Amino acid sequence: MQDEFVRDVFVRDVFVKDVFDYAGAIAGCAARDAEALRRLYDHASPYLLGVALRIVRDRQTAEDVLHDAFVKIWTAAGTYDGARGAARGWLFSIVRHEALNVVRGRLRLVTPDEDAAEAIDAEVSLAASAGRADAGETRVLMGRLNDCLDHLDEPRRNSLMFAYLDGCSHSEIAARLGAPLGSVKAWIRRGLQSLRECMQ
What we know:
Elements: H1 3-14, H2 22-30, H3 34-56, H4 59-76, H5 87-106, H6 114-132, H7 135-150, H8 154-166, H9 170-177, H10 181-199
Helix pairs in contact: 1-5, 1-7, 2-3, 3-4, 3-5, 3-8, 4-5, 5-6, 6-10, 7-10, 8-10, 9-10
């Protein structure tokens, strides 16, 4: 998916509506307003760190990804075009792109565990989908993903949201849901598989 549509559906339909002016903050960055960058970082960095953490699965590496992503956001802010997609989606796309680059760079050195492989596969395949999609296609994909999410049972849906939005570890999700760790791992693995099959 262009990273945008998974995140947009999750935030829109599950979490309280986010009213922060992302587009205004990005415009401020394009005008080299350091205060705009600070506001954007203060508001968005917890979510963006969660996105990076879920992909790279290491806190320090995720923080490095976040740093690099904000450098890119600052330098590339002038290229953001609101007609091509939501400002928040643009931010998430940059973070996911940076994180996936890190993962690709170390795939030759490290074999990810089964759950990491599931997550990486989902991220890469969904990102590829969005790269091929124009704005109209993205809206269609968002609707399809929303429908697919609605068909997941609550444990799988909640586990995926905690993992991808909050960047929670499996242990943290188990604590939040009051469920066994093995169940959480299974819910995430099967939930990702169900979403991939549904989106095909």
